[in-house]
Amino acid sequence: MATLAITVTPLPVQAYAEPVYPPAAEHGWVTSTLRHMSLEQKVGQLFSTYVYGGDAADPTSADRAANRAAFGVETPAEVIDRFHLGGVIYFSWSHNLDSPRQIATLSNGLQRAALGDGAKGRVPLLVSTDQEQGVVLRMPAPAAQFPGAMALGAGRSPRAAYTAAEITGRELRAVGIHQPYAPIADVNINPDNPVIGVRSFGADPALVAELTAAQVAGFEDGAGVTSVAKHFPGHGDTADDSHTGLPVIDHSRAEWERIDAPPFRRAVAAGVDSIMTAHIVVPALDSSGDPATLSPTILTGVLRGELGFRGVIVTDALNMAAVRQKYGDDRVPVLALKAGADQLLMPPDLRLARDAVLRAVATGELTEQRIDESVRRILAMKYRQGLAGSPMADVDEAVRTVGAPQHIAAVAQVTDPTLTAVRNDAGLLPLTHANRSVLVTGWNSAAFAPIAAVAGGFTARGARATAQPATLPSDALIAATAAKAADHDLTVVLVNKAWDDVVTDPRGTQRRLVAALVGTGKPVVVVAVRDPYDIAYLPGVTTYLTTYSYTAAAMDALVRALHDELSPSGRLPVTIPTAEGAGTVLYPYGHGLTW
After folding, report:
1. pTM higher than 0.90, yes or no?
2. Does residue 16 register a pLDDT over 70?
3. Which of 339, 388, 403, 486 is the most buried (most CB within 10 A)?
4. Positions marked active-site
């Protein structure tokens, strides 16, 4: 598909005042702490990375082995102590996230490791995770699982965006996590974007800017956590994934100002504490060919100089392919610091990266004064988080806060207005016969079980529902599923990035499944549980909705809408082009049906 032009609402140029100097208490703590830190401790503060294990001092044998291979020590606490780490990022795959009690206990154990015996120069830890919500969330149930950015864009409500951020932030803070890597400030104008997509609020810079600012306020003012607007200078118009390649954004300077810059300007004006860099090349901003993460012109010249940002610049993960193509792993962290970055995220070899920065200081390539500048920003952010005086999580309070009934109720209230009905040509919806046989099939997730959730919703309403997961089905399963559909009155089929026949679904199995189901002649409802663009690749489909994610609340809203218990009110926050591209619009920005 080709990039589509859309009409955008111009935003006024923001005026930025000179930086406000920190209050005396913050300045005093930062200055005193920095004075007592060794160079090794200062350099350690610049790094944030993963550690393996659900307990700081007693991980499983497998996690001990993983830590030993990656860091040369066995426990998360030892990793913190050895490298004087300034931050840690939690993932499910590194076995950090299980339950509120476990996560809070892990956070406290890591803080004790960071603080040691309380000697001067020891600094509390900044704990982070990618809790964007929607399709990118790390905290497992019972945590509140809100819709992601594009769903919020479909709902068009800054208040809902604020609420989602505030509650997400409160739950994270309760378990000792202070830095959700959100919100996404990228404007997704490229339907072929493999890495952003529904993680973006949409394709209108004004909408993305408004909802970005709302979430910055929700995280920081509402919940007291550090928001991170990402990915500067804008990752929304690429067909390449920076995890595996080096994207080039060919926007002119004027296009960048009109499309990509507004959300970041609004984030800065809203007081965002941190901004994450993108591993992308933007020739109009820097002709060197270096990715933005390593570009002094972009980070120091544009972000700090032109946008007036005074907070912490954090790199995207340094183990991604895009930032490693031109320079070695020993050069990347040094060049990122020279460019203006402060926090270095997930280098592929922590010891190599740490030693490279120390060596750069020893040779004069970096000065200790430059290191101090970044450490001051990081320490100031930690102080504003309250970590100087109260770094520990209350474990019992974490259990009470995460998944609290009022939070779960808010999830439904925020999710319901995001459901978007795109096509209802045959007038099939809303359904009028409860006592029918229904097959629910298509894409499924072991973690969220959307197929079972939708089937259960039909069963609860008196239908005879059959759940038949068919994620990237074989030819035999496609044939069997179509045969089963022929014996049912109705089929509901879920699809997930069916448009992507390069990475997600290279054999086009989802498209062939839908075609086989349509070929039965029985009514078929197609539901895109991620990107709304799938409809362009599904000829013959006459009934189509998009939920933008596959959370329990999204599936519940879907079932209620199908049964006329909820009127769809979401509007497309992007334009859906035809499969042939060439700028031809299938469904315009703002389209949405209701009943």
Report:
1. yes
2. no
3. 339
4. 243, 316
